[in-house]
Amino acid sequence: MKRVAVIPGDGIGPEVIREAVSTIERARDLFGFEIGLEHFDWGAEKYLATGITMPEGALEILSAEYDAILTGAFGDPRVPDNKHAKDILLGMRSGLDLYINLRPIKLIDERLCPLKGRRVEDVDFVVFRENTEGMYVFMGGNFKKGTADEVATQEEINTRQGVERIITAAFEYARKHSRKRVTMSDKSNVLTYGHDLWQRTFKTVAARYPDIEANHFYIDVLAMWMVLDPGRFDVIVTCNLFGDIITDLGAGLQGGLGMAASGNIHPGRVSLFEPVHGSAPTVAGKNVANPIAAILTAAMMLDYIGFTEAAEKIESAVEDSVRAGDTTQDIGGTLSTTEAGEAIRARLSAGELR
Ligand code: IPM
Ligand code: MN
Fold it and tell me: CB neighbours (10 Å) of residue 109?
């Protein structure tokens, strides 16, 4: 029996996670795997009512008692500094040492790609975003804050171990999934200390994988090639901030944030799965949010905890629904969030999937 902590969060989080959970339950009934889903109410509402973002000892409980965590989104206009999102989401990423942020960029239907003439096979790669250091360490400060002489610093941290483990994870993934190329992206022409470490580490690790092609683009050039010729990418590995930026660009190539799934992973440990999108407060509660990112995220999670067949069938059901146009409005359909989720579950139940 696998145990999953479900944290729907804020905004559209609860709506899309409801669809993801129903889809997991449908798959469980169909394929007969054992899974326990337990809900946690962490988010803006609880923070505003109690001042608590994450209860004391929560990380220890998650890592000792759960196999995976499924979250919706965090962010609420009533918490302008986003303290709860920082504590909960970034707190789990760093506190559970989830050093891989794995974000697949996969086009399901060419109709959804904003690029001219691109077919589904042209947009099919994965991003390995470093997830525990870089610009996300909150080191820095202010001097003379609020005065005309104000100084603000924000430090980027790159450690040899941190860089080596994310690059190694990218090569291991390439080998396991028969991807032929790993592309590392940095800004070492300007960040001559921090990203020079990426350069040197990448060469060392790449030499251990002679069967896999290794290449490099500066991040600005990579952004251009993602648009001009996304087909040249298989696996991209990059630092935390650049990974954040290019995965929104990648989501755009797939049809928008409603389509993009992600996993925050430390192999062998409890790992956290979340759609790439945010809480979208302006559309929350209207039953219009696209549940696909959350459902594909749930599939990634099922695969991670060992229910691979169910994961593949859910992905196929999503692909069929998208191709048939049984989707929410953001990707051209007319369905509500719940109807779009049900369209996917109906295909799962019908069982005629590849
Ligand atoms: C993401 C988000 C987060 C990030 C925010 C909400 C802190 O944009 O998961 O990509 O910057 O990592
Ligand atoms: Mn982001």
Answer: 18
Torsion of Cα atoms, 135 then 136 then 140 then 145, to 10°: 100
Cβ neighbours of residue 226 closer than 8 Å, sequence gap 6 or more: 233, 246, 249, 250, 253
Count Cβ neighbours within 10 Å for each residue of 316-353 and write b for 16 or more, e otherwise.
bbbbbbbeeebbbebbebebbbebbbbbbbebbeeeee
Residue type present at position 322: V
244 is a catalytic site residue:
yes
pLDDT at 351: 83
Using the predicted structure, report yes or no on whether residue 354 has a pLDDT greater than 60: no
pLDDT confidence of residue 353:
60
User: Which of the ligands is closest to the CA of residue 262?
Assistant: 1
Catalytic choice (66, 136, 173, 304) = 136
pTM of the predicted protein model:
0.96
Cβ–Cβ < 8 Å for 201, 167? yes
Calculate mean pLDDT across residues 28-51: 97
- Cβ atoms of 168 and 105 within 8 Å: the answer is no
Q: Is 244 in the pocket of ligand 1 (CB under 6 A)?
A: yes
Ligand 1 atom, smallest distance to 262 CA = 9
Whether residue 117 is predicted with pLDDT greater than 60 in this model: the reply is yes
Ligand approaching nearest to the C-alpha of 85: 1
- Which of 76, 94, 136, 244 should be mutated for ligand 1, with most atoms under 8 A from CB? 244
**What's the mean pLDDT when you consider all of the chain?**
97
**Residue 278 DSSP one-character state:** -
Query: Does residue 341 carry a pLDDT above 70?
Result: yes
208: CA distance to ligand 1 center in Å?
Answer: 32
Catalytic residue among 2, 86, 124, 187: 187
Which whole-number Å values give the CA distances from 273 to 137, 179, 300, in the listed order? 21, 23, 8
